[in-house]
DNA sequence: TATTGTTATACTCTATAACTATA
DNA sequence: TATAGTTATAGAGTATAACAATA
């Protein structure tokens, strides 16, 4: 776990690698977006799906925590939730102990829609991944894990 | 250089793996978006960057080809190019042999802005990747290659 | 008629700044 | 005053459908 000391590795090829990472992410993102939107009538947008997924895993979450997790401004999250409340996928109530705080929950329809859209997309993604050899799959999953750790916090210095 | 051996791969469910892929892609996407927009005054959006990058590599490309490559509707690309032409990053002229066809080219400013925004983002990405061990880097690059091949064409049926 | 783009229209996503309500 | 959200405002991205221009 001791992370590699960076003496003065330049790794000229890393830029090419970064390019590959960016291209791939963009490609998959497009696939995911189209896939998500295609699951009608649910037809969630990617940000909507992310919010619903977060709330499903964090029942009663506040607006701030959702905004931070998804990586958008608080006002953007407020608007996003507006839309989800209008579609009756989410309920937004004031917390008893601190009326400023909002409590977000999925409605039954919210659970159903998320399952239909997000989970269906996941299934389709899994179908694709199934065409890889076990070695390739393992390689991919390991890479995802590595990248997630690398980009979750920025302190690439000390690790955790 | 030999890629890391994955012996006891369990691959419990590809769905779990698919979930990891989706989460990671979303995470990196957010990082890339914020990074791109941060390179002021260039401050390109991700779609704008994609269009410019495509034109840089395909001088004289048509609107249709750009739309197809980026994965958006023709009308969306038309709008995107509107913005880029307004910013004088791109020129849009009619092809002599077929006036219906459009010829897209980067202006000098277009080249400069793309270099500043896209390439700077790539550099920052590369800096992060530099913190990985050579094995991890290799693993990641290989995974990107695998995923790109897998998602470039849709035939998830037979693979190729 | 078929092809290549553009326009009209309508939503969603996003941020900054100003504001409201509660602590 | 500080905190949690909302609203006002503005601009970009996206798609579908209707339209225009050229072949």
Structure write-up:
Chain A is mainly α and 160 residues long. Chain A is 62% helix and 9% strand. Chain A contains six helices and two strands. The first copy, chain A, has helices at residues 14-38, 46-57, 63-70, 74-86, 108-129, 134-152, and strands at residues 90-95, 98-106. Chain A has a two-stranded antiparallel ribbon. In chain A, a hairpin with a 2-residue loop joins strand 1 (90-95) and strand 2 (98-106). The radius of gyration of chain A is 19 Å and the shape is globular. Mean pLDDT of chain A is 86; it is low at 1-7 and 154-160. At the A-B interface, helix 1, helix 5 and helix 6 of A face helix 1, helix 5 and helix 6 of B. The structure holds a DNA duplex (23 and 23 nucleotides).
Strand order of the largest sheet of chain A: 1-2
Distance between the termini of chain A: 9 Å
The largest pleated sheet of chain A is described as: 2 strands, antiparallel
Task: Report low-confidence residues of chain A grouped into runs of 5 or more.
Answer: 1-7, 154-160
What assembly state would you assign to the polypeptide chains in this entry? homodimer
Q: Please estimate the helix content of chain A.
A: 55-70%
Name the largest protein-protein interface in this structure.
A-B, 57 and 56 residues
